[in-house]
Amino acid sequence: MSILRRRKGPELPPKPEKTHENEIEDDKDKKKKASEETSHKKVMRFGCIDNCCWFIGCVCSIWWLLLFLYNAMPASFPQYVTEAITGPLPDPPGLKLHKEGLIAKHPVVFVPGIVTGGLELWEGHSCAEGLFRKRLWGGSFGEVYKRPLCWVEHMSLNNETGLDPDGIRVRPVTGLVAADYFAPGYFVWAVLIANLARIGYEEKTMYMAAYDWRISFQNTEVRDQTLSRIKSNIEAMVATNNGKKVVVIPHSMGVLYFLHFMKWVEAPAPMGGGGGSDWCAKHIKAVMNIGAPFLGVPKAVSGLFSSEAKDVAVARAIAPGVLDKDLFRLKSLQHVMKMTRTWDATMSMIPKGGDTIWGGLDWSPEEGFNCDLKKKKSNNSQVVDQNGTVAEGSTTKKAHYGRMISFGKDVADANPSEIERVDFRDAFKGHNLANSTCEDVWTEYHDMGFAGIKAVADYKVYTAGSIIDLLRFVAPKMMKRGDAHFSHGIAENLDDPLYDHYKYWSNPLETKLPNAPDMEIFSMYGVGIPTERSYVYKLTPTSDCYIPFQIDTSAESGKEEEGSCLKGGVYTADGDETVPVLSAGYMCAKAWRGKTRFNPSGIRTYNREYDHAPPSNLLEGRGTQSGAHVDIMGNFALIEDVIRVAAGATGEEIGGDQVYSDIFKWSEKIKLKL
């Protein structure tokens, strides 16, 4: 047997012995390899962040490129593109009326509303160094981002007096620039001013009656003598324009402020301006109220109760807890509540007239309103005379608008006899919830215990008649100041000397219009936009420094409820997105129509409604046919009406009443002694 032998391979050279230098090289190689692996892992781990940074960078680059192109393009280019899409644009109202031969005649006074007037710093604490005469409100709002807590401190008022805190003075900006733009590119009065200028108006015939919209109306006179300044400016404008009376154009809360002024100017000193009972008749041709919250707004209730409105509630639903938590060391809603509850003027917009005006548990003037506003667009504009009515609108499932706050959708829908309520007014508030961590965001809720919070929820449903008591229960300090400056009831006897006090002057249901039979009053407002009317609430889960109540965004109308008005915990009715038609229209439609106890001299009143039409494309901006609360200031039809009256026309000459809503039908349901 043959024996196979494996061939011996070539001998390998002996491995060199590892020296100290070789070991060092090996260590370096290992470290380099480990470093590369770690680097690779880091890239993989933070790839998402890198992608986000690249995305943000691309967006910013594109934005700056578009901004550059926008500023580089001819001024007529946006108009050219818009006309190519929608056809030729109409002339601006001022240009159109200038071609018709209209010229400036009556001096014009603008009265801005809440939040639209600029405020600037005159004295502040150390954190506000370098901000002397810089805008804290309006403009770019840069200080909100740079030093938010300092900004909140300086925008807040004294919680006891409702006036300036020690060492802080914030004052209204003066002149037309006070409220022409709210922020860069966001007009308020600018479009109206520009169109008036086209028929010959200039600064000597236009006056912006700027005031500090945070403080109570009478305190604007006590602190700043604002009412006296308005009086002297109007007198000067009449005197320097050959005795031509002024046309006053208040907007939003400015409407209530000017109502207060008309009573103040006639009242004897020291409480009033001492102008006498014929001052308004001598100096005012017309008052053209835009977006007037004559009878208040439900939005003010949700704002004071939980620092919410529909938009905030939706934001909470999208990002649960973000606004409530200590994000970036800011408890956002708590700071907002702490600040806004020191602004006494907000209490002027709490709904007035109680259940008589706004409805009760089982009725409301708007009962049967169909919230599918698109279907109602088929209704034509109706022009009615001083005693006219409009046809009834469509009906849908009954919404209990009179229940301004309901705790739970089941309560909002329930039969009144099925609602079991426990009165909260004398309830024990329980132990104090405040602790040392809440000092910076103290609200009056921190003085309530769980028993008080439960008592509020156990009352189940609040109408306009019980809202005032609710606010007095949850915010007694705020309402103590508010009760000293405002009233929200209905006067039984307007000749009672009780109503000579200034707290009643901004409530049209507790005061008389001036003795000025030749004066005209217009209520001009948008319609066709869902507007907050009542709310479904729930209790908030307990946490530190929390606001115990919030709008229940899960409350929605069922699919079977066609045309229903509940969405995201908010029942909506017809209006301009802020002020319901009922509040804006009732006084001129009925309570002041003809000679009544509220209008003893028979001042002529007109309702001018503007049906909302959103802009057809982005290049149209905020639109020329908008009925929204602020955007209506750029509505061409409204601006034309204002210019015609300023140029000498009467209410009848511009068409009298123009009505799209059911305001006359709803007004007939309100049983108010006239």
Automatic annotation (TrEMBL):
Its EC number is 2.3.1.158. Keywords: Acyltransferase, Membrane, Transferase, Transmembrane, Transmembrane helix. It is a single-pass membrane protein. GO terms for molecular function: O-acyltransferase activity; phospholipid:diacylglycerol acyltransferase activity. It catalyses: a glycerophospholipid + a 1,2-diacyl-sn-glycerol = a monoacylglycerophospholipid + a triacyl-sn-glycerol. GO terms for biological process: triglyceride biosynthetic process. Its main location: membrane. The keyword GTP-binding does not apply. It is an enzyme of class 2 (transferase). The chain crosses the membrane at residues 52-73. It is found in: Membrane. Belongs to the AB hydrolase superfamily. Lipase family. This is phospholipid:diacylglycerol acyltransferase.
